[in-house]
Design a protein that fits this description.
Two copies of one chain form a homodimer. Helices cover about 70% and strands about 10% of the residues of chain A. Chain A has about 160 residues and is mainly α. In chain A, helix 3 packs across helix 4. The radius of gyration of chain A is 18 Å and the shape is globular. Chain A has seven helices and three strands, in the order ααβααββααα. The first copy, chain A, has a three-stranded antiparallel β-sheet with strand order 1-3-2. Chain B binds a DNA duplex (30 and 30 nucleotides) through helix 2 and helix 4.
Chain lengths: ~160, ~160
Amino acid sequence: MSTEENTDLKTLLGALVSSGHRLTRLAATATDDQRSPAVWRTLSALSSYGPVRLGELARLSRVTQPTMTKIVRNLDDLDWIKRIVDVEDKRAWLIAATPKGLAALAEWRDTLASALLPHFSGLDAGDLAAMQRVVEILDERAALDGSAAFEGEIA
Amino acid sequence: MSTEENTDLKTLLGALVSSGHRLTRLAATATDDQRSPAVWRTLSALSSYGPVRLGELARLSRVTQPTMTKIVRNLDDLDWIKRIVDVEDKRAWLIAATPKGLAALAEWRDTLASALLPHFSGLDAGDLAAMQRVVEILDERAALDGSAAFEGEIA
DNA sequence: ACCATTGCATAGCCGGGCTATGTAAAATGG
DNA sequence: CCATTTTACATAGCCCGGCTATGCAATGGT
């Protein structure tokens, strides 16, 4: 991979992050959403990884443990997660999404996507394919396990 | 556009927003960044639109005016923006990015993108093209003017 | 048994979000 | 011209998600 290609990828990555920020605000204003990205991100992680320790959930979400403690307390109040005693370690909690939480996540996605639809009308099949591919790339590369595993393979 | 295609686009949009959240956290942890997405988003908007009123900047960024007042005060303290008296209206300020602010934005993008590169190694030209296209779509559709203009054209 | 490490909660701070309110300037209408 | 309404921004207060630092209890190692 030449320097020029690296520069192109670099430029793209910077632009992708910026565009993502913009999309985040669009998403926040497109619906009367009372919850933050952190809530959905956390529920999404629980949905993907199943019950995990609070500290591990923090790691997966790339936030510090006290931050995750706060988020989890919030989700607990909503009955969107439940705490499970980790029988192997009395210090630890396993955090699991409840059916109510998963339903809320699904509903959020649906409501949000519906609200965003008008902003993205008129895209052709090629555009959809591009979006699909980028989602795949991000899910693979921005996920902690995926990223770590990939680096392991290269190194 | 059939219902099925709408469903696919809906699913994609929801996934894209989620993936974007994940990328945001990756970006936040990939660098020792002391500034938030709001700072960069605002500087980026000023870079794109040139000097605008504080209220208009809030609108462009999809946040409320008091929020933007805070962000602008922050940027002002850093000498990354300057306030310009709007000669047409004594109540209003024009907010412009300073060269120092624009340099900081460019440096952030470079530093961030460099830090992200290892996570995204091994992508092929098709992947880059997909990312390029998605950035274009988001910039066009998530931007306030672009989105509004497009809706106007359809209606 | 003792000590270091680990897991989570708490404390404190900051900034970005919001709604509500206040002040001054500008626009509007009689 | 003047009273009223609207507009532009600042301030206040609240909440939440970030962080670092610290505390307490459990666990692991020697």
